[in-house]
Amino acid sequence: MTVKDNLVRFGGVPEHFNAPFQRLLQRQAKEDPAAEGPQLAWRTYPGGSGAMLNAVISKEVDCACVLTESAVAHIIKNSGEDAKDRVKILGTYVASPLVWGVHASARRPADSDSNIFGISRMGSGSHIMAQVDNDNAEGNLRFKVVNSLDGAVESMAKGEIDYFMWEVFTTKHLVDKGEWKLVRKVPAPWPAFVFVVSHDISADRLAAIKEVVISVHREIERMLKDL
Question: Which residues constitute the domain of residue 138?
Answer without folding.
Answer: 97-189
